[in-house]
Amino acid sequence: MIEGRVWKFGDHINTDLIIPGRYLDDYSAANLAAHALEDADPQFAKQVRKGDILVAGRNFGCGSSREQAPLALKYAGVGAVVAGSFARIFFRNAINVGLPVVVCPKASQVIKPGDVIRIDLHQGTIDVVGAKQVLKFDPMPDFMRSILESGGLVPYTRERLHQK
Prior knowledge:
Blueprint: E1 2-8, H1 15-18, H2 29-34, H3 44-47, E2 53-56, H4 68-76, E3 80-83, H5 88-97, E4 101-103, H6 107-110, E5 116-120, E6 125-128, E7 133-136, H7 142-150, H8 153-163
Parallel strand pairs: 1-2, 2-3, 3-4
Antiparallel strand pairs: 1-5, 5-6, 6-7
Helix pairs in contact: 4-5, 7-8
């Protein structure tokens, strides 16, 4: 179960908005986190709290395939991203770095900034706390949840190699 306060963004939030290219000379987690979404919301990196959840419209993570974009969000403290749709490479990069992503087209229409939501990846539900509203999405496949629960693809692979 993932629970957090909502930050809301619109359609077509591209990877350059998520982590501007001008900061990619230093791939450290601290640098990436300090500049996450600063061109979309200059206060985001300063005010985001561990576990906060992004809710956005369509085509989240479009643009370049830089894996620093989901890393910037993860290290800034984002607990999950819910969007109407994702750019395919961003979606997979997010899973690979251990950042939960959920496709739910209705979310951006219903959920408001500051709402608290609970996401159940196994059941495929988003509960808008206090609003008595539950949104449904296609549950995440077991293997993807396993990657997320391990913290990303590298830790997942290490676990599997050590089991043999």
